[in-house]
């Protein structure tokens, strides 16, 4: 087993823990990440800089409150780093600081969403959001999430014929249920979003009822693609925008909330004291570093490659007979129906497919498909993403090989010798693209 301190020895940057038990688990995870391909759509590999920036003395510091208004002393450096992270966050999306505010304290994407609801809504208010099975997220109204417990959730979905967002359905429901907030945000939707259409629908509500619903976008998955300028942006039309920082933005695990200045007080209150106490300033350091990387690297090229890789991957799987939901992708997500190949039943479900691919070194996740009649723990779909493998440097040739390996793996589920061979092929690809830590 390769020890993490040996990998980093020459660069003298990684500390080997004295706690052997914990260190051993970290070593195993390093090995797993080195030897396998990360194709879970919500994951990425951060740079060495971001990784190192997560570990710093700000972890010692309590800093409840906001820049210039804290509840404890000793905040001069905390204020500087938080302000820098805010300035850079606005810059990566080209936002005017006179119009937009950003809260960088949200601990993650789910808490960021809850903070918004808490900040701008009253319990029982109506939220119109995408149904989980159509590609929405738990924090958009699942009955076991705070969103579904404290608010009245009305769901919209996708059309049966093409699995694209049903904007007519959104309009009808908006006019019927008079939502306080309309939420556009997705975890498993592979296509471009017509952000302006949401704005038009909100305007129709205003014409009919004299108020405009708050427009909230959750861009957790596609934030990096928007920052790179390769996906369309909700900023021209929306009031509040939440995101994670660890997916396509390639930062540390965390959340972020942008809002028009008129919502600043509500959003900041929603985060603290709404759902959080002290912010994790050590992670805000790493957010600042990640945003700096976006500003100072060819991030556009990275995001173009992410999408090109996803498109090729979808195309290759289709050529091999697999059904790709919506017939392709416009972003980093590829959703595949695992239950049929060449229009014939495979006898497979998402659970066994996920396990099968995990065993040969490809991480991906089982995913409910729109109108799925299988259970969430063993649905009809698998979701892939190309953000992480693109960060690792894989390009078109490797993508074509990976599609073929996946096809062979799923077609030889009961053939251990074949699976061992495929695992070796994946390891061989990985060895050509070592993790750069
Ligand atoms: C659209 C969307 N919003 C929110 C989240 C939740 O983020 P976190 O896991 O950081 O709480 C996710 C996570 O995958 C997501 O896809």
Automatic annotation (TrEMBL):
Q: What chemistry does it catalyse, as a reaction equation?
A: (6R)-5,10-methylene-5,6,7,8-tetrahydrofolate + glycine + H2O = (6S)-5,6,7,8-tetrahydrofolate + L-serine
SUPFAM superfamilies attached to this UniProt entry? PLP-dependent transferases
What CDD domains does the annotation carry? SHMT (cd00378)
GO molecular function terms noted in the UniProt entry: glycine hydroxymethyltransferase activity
Site for Plays an important role in substrate specificity, residues: 246
Instruction: Give EC number(s), comma-separated.
Output: 2.1.2.1
Where, per the database record, does this protein carry N6-(pyridoxal phosphate)lysine? 247
Q: Which family does it belong to?
A: Belongs to the SHMT family.
Q: State how it assembles.
A: Homodimer.
Output the PANTHER family linked to this UniProt entry: SERINE HYDROXYMETHYLTRANSFERASE (PTHR11680), SERINE HYDROXYMETHYLTRANSFERASE 1 (PTHR11680:SF35)
Please identify the protein, giving its name as recorded: Serine hydroxymethyltransferase
Organism of derivation: Candidatus Vampirococcus lugosii
Q: Which gene encodes it?
A: glyA
């Amino acid at each position: 087993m390769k020890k993490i301190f040996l990998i980093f020895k020459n660069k003298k940057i990684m500390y080997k823990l004295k706690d052997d038990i914990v260190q051993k688990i970290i070593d195993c995870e390093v090995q797993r990440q080195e030897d396998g391909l990360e194709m879970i759509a919500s994951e990425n590999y951060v740079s060495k800089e971001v990784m190192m920036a997560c570990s710093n003395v700000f972890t010692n510091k309590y800093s409840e409150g906001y820049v210039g208004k804290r509840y404890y002393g000793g905040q001069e450096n905390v204020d500087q780093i938080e302000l820098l992270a805010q300035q850079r966050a606005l810059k990566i999306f080209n936002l005017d600081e006179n119009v937009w505010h950003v809260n960088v304290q949200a601990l993650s994407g789910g808490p960021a969403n809850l903070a918004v609801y808490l900040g701008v809504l009253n319990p029982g208010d109506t939220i119109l959001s995408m149904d989980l099975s159509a590609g929405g997220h738990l924090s958009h109204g699942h009955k076991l999430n705070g969103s579904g417990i404290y608010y009245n959730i009305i769901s919209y979905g996708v059309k049966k014929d093409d699995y694209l967002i049903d904007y007519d359905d959104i309009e009808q429901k908006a006019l019927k249920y008079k939502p306080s907030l309309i939420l556009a945000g997705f975890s498993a939707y592979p296509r471009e979003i017509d952000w302006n259409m949401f704005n038009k629908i909100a305007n129709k509500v205003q014409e009919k009822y004299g108020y405009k619903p708050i427009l909230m976008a959750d861009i957790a998955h596609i934030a990096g693609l928007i920052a790179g300028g390769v996906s369309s942006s909700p900023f021209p039309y929306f009031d509040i925008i939440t995101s994670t920082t660890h997916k396509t933005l390639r930062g540390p695990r965390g959340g972020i909330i942008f809002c028009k200045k008129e919502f600043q007080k509500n959003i900041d209150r929603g985060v603290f004291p709404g759902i959080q106490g002290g912010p994790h300033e050590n992670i805000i350091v790493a957010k600042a570093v990640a945003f700096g990387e976006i500003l100072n690297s060819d991030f556009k090229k990275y995001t173009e490659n992410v999408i090109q890789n996803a498109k090729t991957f979808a195309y290759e799987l289709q050529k091999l007979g697999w059904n790709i939901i919506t017939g392709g992708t416009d972003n980093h997500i590829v959703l595949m129906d695992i239950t049929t190949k060449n229009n014939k039943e495979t006898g497979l479900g998402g659970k066994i497919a996920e396990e099968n691919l995990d065993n040969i070194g490809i991480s991906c996740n089982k995913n409910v498909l729109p109108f799925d009649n299988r259970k969430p723990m063993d649905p009809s779909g698998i979701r892939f993403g190309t953000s992480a493998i693109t960060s690792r440097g894989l390009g078109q040739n490797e993508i074509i090989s990976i599609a073929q390996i996946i096809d062979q793996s799923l077609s030889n589920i009961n053939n251990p010798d074949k699976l061992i061979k495929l695992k070796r092929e994946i390891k061989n690809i990985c060895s050509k693209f070592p993790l750069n830590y």
